[in-house]
């Protein structure tokens, strides 16, 4: 059934914990590379090599033809930016790095937006607001709540502050499959609104824009998504587990022991 939401068994949950821990650790380590003068291809190389060293596989590589092992989305790029030797970080940029690791057949998916050196107040506020949007989304997760409660919480925080909430790209169930049901919109969407049950694992990954919520797909590379007005966009992503009394953030890097 295409719309079936898989409830993970205790063994599957343990495997998800391990995959998500690796994705979070990889993201934490690669964040050291974020500084002016670094090419996004160097970020890709680190993620690729570290992932293989850990006995895992970088999920983006060859996923529906994606050519690299991580997504690097700079400034007006909303998501799915392709690392490149020509794409060199500059003081004042913001960059989202989105890591997805496959460990023992299970996916862990997490991203953060980083500041490159000193950035404008406008950019810093956008990034802080987007982080808060993720926290607000995570906070409503518990068994018995509904998927659309998440988007409502995010939209109600972002829009009154003047930001646009991206609609075309959503969070997703995750497990043995990279993108599985349910879809997790970050705004009040119509359509399916399943109840959350303990043992579900999915991502919450709000993309928040300084201006319009509208996006545009790069027709040349078929991947890079930009804001239609070319203003800044930020994103944070966690993979979470629904529990009886709340939520477990599986990609929480503050819980990593070195
Ligand atoms: N990691 C992205 C997500 O959060 C998906 C990237 S697909 C890729 O769902 F092919 F661009 F890597
Ligand atoms: Co995701
Ligand atoms: Co991701």
Description:
- The protein has helices spanning 10-30, 40-53, 121-139, 147-158, and strands at 57-58, 71-74, 77-79, 94-103, 106-115, 164-165, 171-173, 180-184, 201-204, 207-209, 215-217, 225-227, 233-235, 238-243, 246-249.
- The mean pLDDT is 97.
- It has one domain: Creatinase/methionine aminopeptidase superfamily (Creatine Amidinohydrolase, Alpha-Beta Complex).
- Strands 1, 2, 4 and 5 form a four-stranded antiparallel sheet that branches. A three-stranded antiparallel sheet has the order 3-12-11, with no helix packed on it. It has a three-stranded antiparallel sheet with strand order 6-10-13, with helices on one face.
- Helix 3 (121-139) runs antiparallel to helix 4.
- By secondary structure, it is of the alpha+beta class.
- Residues 98, 100, 109, 111, 237 line the site of one cobalt (II) ion.
How many domains? The number is 1
Q: How many strands in all? A: 15
Approximately how much beta-strand content do the residues carry? 25-35%
* Biggest sheet overview: 4 strands, antiparallel
Fraction of helical residues: 25-40%
Q: Distance between the terminal alpha carbons, to the nearest Å? A: 41 Å
Q: By CATH's scheme, which homologous superfamily applies?
A: Creatinase/methionine aminopeptidase superfamily
Bound molecules: 2-amino-4-trifluoromethylsulfanyl-butyric acid, cobalt (II) ion
Name of the CATH class: Alpha Beta
Global Rg: 17 Å
Give the number of helices: 4
Mean pLDDT, rounded to whole units?
97
| Uncertain ranges | none
Structural class: alpha+beta
Shape: globular
State the order of secondary-structure elements, H for helix, E for strand.
Answer: HHEEEEEHHEEEEEEEEEE
What is the CATH architecture assignment? Alpha-Beta Complex
CATH topology: the name is Creatine Amidinohydrolase
């Amino acid at each position: 059934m295409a719309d079936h939401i898989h409830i993970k068994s205790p063994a599957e949950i343990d495997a998800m914990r391990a995959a998500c821990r690796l994705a979070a650790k990889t993201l934490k380590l690669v964040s050291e590379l974020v500084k002016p003068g670094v090419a996004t291809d160097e970020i890709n190389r680190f993620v690729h090599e570290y992932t293989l060293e850990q006995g895992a596989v970088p999920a983006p590589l060859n996923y529906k033809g994606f050519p690299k092992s991580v997504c690097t989305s700079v400034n007006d790029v909303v998501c799915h930016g392709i690392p490149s030797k020509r794409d060199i970080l500059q003081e004042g940029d913001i960059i989202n790095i989105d890591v997805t690791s496959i460990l023992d057949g299970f996916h862990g998916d997490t991203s953060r937006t980083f500041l490159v050196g000193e950035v404008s107040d406008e950019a810093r506020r956008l990034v802080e607001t987007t982080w808060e949007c993720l926290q607000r989304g995570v906070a409503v997760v518990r068994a018995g709540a509904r998927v659309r409660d998440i988007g409502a919480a995010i939209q109600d925080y972002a829009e009154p502050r003047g930001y646009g909430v991206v609609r075309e790209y959503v969070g997703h169930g995750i497990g043995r499959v990279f993108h599985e049901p349910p879809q997790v919109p970050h705004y009040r969407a119509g359509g399916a609104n399943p109840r959350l049950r303990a043992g579900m694992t999915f991502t919450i990954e709000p993309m928040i824009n300084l201006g319009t919520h509208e996006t545009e797909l790069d027709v040349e590379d078929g991947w890079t998504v930009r804001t239609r007005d070319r203003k800044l966009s930020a994103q944070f992503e966690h993979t979470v587990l629904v529990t009886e009394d709340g939520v477990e953030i599986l990609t929480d890097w503050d819980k990593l022991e070195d």
